[in-house]
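User: Quick one: structure for sequence A, then sequence B.

Assistant: Sequence A:
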Amino acid sequence: MKTAVTLVILCSVLLGAHFLRSGHIVPVAVALLTPFWFLLRRKWVPWVLQILLGIGALVWLETLVSLVSMRMVMGTPWGRMAIILAAVIVVHILAVFALNGARVREYFKNN
């Protein structure tokens, strides 16, 4: 359970910072409020969190593709940035899978 919570918080902060950099305040608020869904303890909450994290992974994938293509056109190095963004995508995917864990299901089933 701690792993899932930690990963969701990490993904929320990363995505919130990403949106803040572009000046999108509403997505920043949504991203930063995402971990508070754990307080609801309803059966459907892990599904909602998984959908939000999946959307976050897609946002990072779109960012990766656009930045790599832009840097390739400009002739600037892009490999390290691609590795970092790919790692962020992997963290989002790991968070989705962590929400399928037995302890998480038990936590949300109790209420």
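Sequence B:
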Amino acid sequence: MLLVRSAYGQTTGEVVLRETYWPAVEGVALPPELAARSAILIEAATNTVLYAKSADLVIPPASLTKVVAIDVALAAVAQGELDLHRRSQPSEAGLATSQPPRSSLMFLRSGQLVSLHELLLGLSVSSGNDAAVEVAARVSGSMQEFARRMERSALERGIVDMRFVEPSGISDRNSITARAFGRYLLGHLADYPTAIERYYEVDRYLYPGSENLSGTPEDVGIEQANRNGLLRSYPGADGFKTGYIPASGYNIAVTASREGRRLIVVLLGVEATTAREGSSLRERDAATLLDYGFEAFENVRFAHPELEPIRVYGAAVRFVSPSAPGSFQVTIPRGQVSALRGEMTQVDSMVRSDSAVEVGNVSVHLGDVELVSSVITVPPQEPAGFVRRIWDSIALAFARLRARINGVAPPLVSSPT
């Protein structure tokens, strides 16, 4: 069976995407067995998982950790803690010479002047461990406190199964799952949509430039290519990050956009004997899943049906128009639009409430499977005057009596009038 899992049981506004399962899509073969030990494919617009393989397996993220570091740094800028473009000298801890052997580097050196923006490019393009340490120092003063902020950024998005002890990804004590990291990326994109263009899709980065040298230019600028090769080989690919440490194998998180749709892939634990082989396998797996997502599925948007006014007893206004989301999307196997059907339930009367009241539901089904639902609500209402409340209480008593005689639901009672 093909797993199509929506929204991880969460709500998007008032729209709830249900967990659903589909058989293989006719005419489109399922992806072959992947080299990755763990994988997930997500439709970003609807938060729908289109493919999963051991997606809850705990694996060190390696340099995928740097995406979380970028998120925390951008949050600090948004909160006014840091200036994105003010340049200052790197700390001793952030220098390239202070990093462990065989570290990937952006080559921070003493005497240079570097901005947070440039450090984030050093994270996303050069995958610099020195950049990660320096970002942590600037944002939080220490790697330990920065790691705590990284975990808080996950918890704030409702993600409990991501652990960090440092921001570069070199430690095998950092841990994620493909499902958790995919969910994190959805939140990261939603909060910082311009990060794609500013950081992740940048193909090459030269550092240091003349603007980074405070004295006589002795350093020669080093231009490094983005380690995400899909930026150059896969149409529409524009992010995110690759990673490798021996404890995890070769990892990649990648996103691609085509014709208004965005897919996210997270692959963890590709095993290989050489870096070239590992990079090739993870990019092959990611391209396979992206092809599958674009070819086998489509998004369908629905307008909300017209809603009937609700009779409200005890309110200043007798009839109130309920509200619901204007539209919502679902992701379905391609070519099955004609099999979709909608259902709506709505009460015709209620008692005034000082808070919003759920008075109905709209849902969309494919076959017997509910894909999405949204609630119909009535906003809080001002109370009627004394005389109106007396008459409405009498009318409400008769309405309840008629409902009992006819065996139907009585007016919805949310709070006393």
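The chain has nine helices and 19 strands. Residues 1-24 have pLDDT under 50 and may be disordered.

User: Thanks, that's what I needed.
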